[in-house]
């Protein structure tokens, strides 16, 4: 009998053990190494010295590096707001389509993921470059007389960010909107609420978890997508991801790159913590 009781537990451990090993080796191990590396000292030429130092974190406080963090956060906020303005109506109305058209629109939203992100970004270069597709359309329509200098600018990077991350916002809003009980909205309308009142008091509150999920899915990656800033910004827009890349492969200051990564991880973790707190409060309000 004892063997029969302990047998299922051993089987459970056999299934859980690979997951723990994977987490320790590929997630916890690299994170611990990165934190330890951030407190080491850079050698004069190559590598690091196992000598405790907080110089890398003090270096982040310099204005030039703090401005990079601020610029990255500003761009992330701008990207998130733009994707929310575009993605919320798109996801909301997509959820109200019939099943046939819903699948078609879902397919169109997901299709860009089938192509490599670098290829799609180079496609935007063809559109934005001087005398490119966009300039040709604008000048032919009489909206502009001279070519725009949109490529290698902040707006180009912002458009590239929005384009790359918009599907995440759309799918998050769509997921929460599709689960809505539309009879509640109809009841509010029957009781005299206007369309706007019903939307603000019911629809917006019900879809808030989807909005928050979309914000997290957009905001956090937008701080590290350095290749978009490289391709569409031409080196004129510097993000934290670009700074980390330069420290790793150009100046080879690995402790400083690790310190930047740790700070970036703390910032993103803070936003995730805020998201979990807000959603937890909303769940408690729903229960009460």
TrEMBL record:
The record's keywords, sorted A to Z, are:
Cell membrane, Membrane, Transmembrane, Transmembrane helix, Transport
Question: What InterPro entries does the annotation carry?
Answer: MetI-like, MetI-like_sf
Specify the superkingdom: Bacteria
Origin species, per record, is Anaeromicropila herbilytica
Localization (cell): Cell membrane
Per the record, the GO terms for biological process are: transmembrane transport
Q: Does the keyword Repressor apply?
A: no
User: What Gene Ontology terms describe where this protein resides (cellular component)?
Assistant: plasma membrane
Q: What is its main location?
A: membrane
SUPFAM superfamilies in the cross-refs: MetI-like
User: Could you tell me what this protein is called?
Assistant: Spermidine/putrescine ABC transporter permease
Give a single Pfam family match.
BPD_transp_1
Q: Report how it sits in the membrane.
A: Multi-pass membrane protein
* Transmembrane regions: 12-36, 75-95, 107-130, 150-175, 256-275
Where do the ABC transmembrane type-1 domain residues begin and end? 69-275
Family label: Belongs to the binding-protein-dependent transport system permease family. CysTW subfamily.
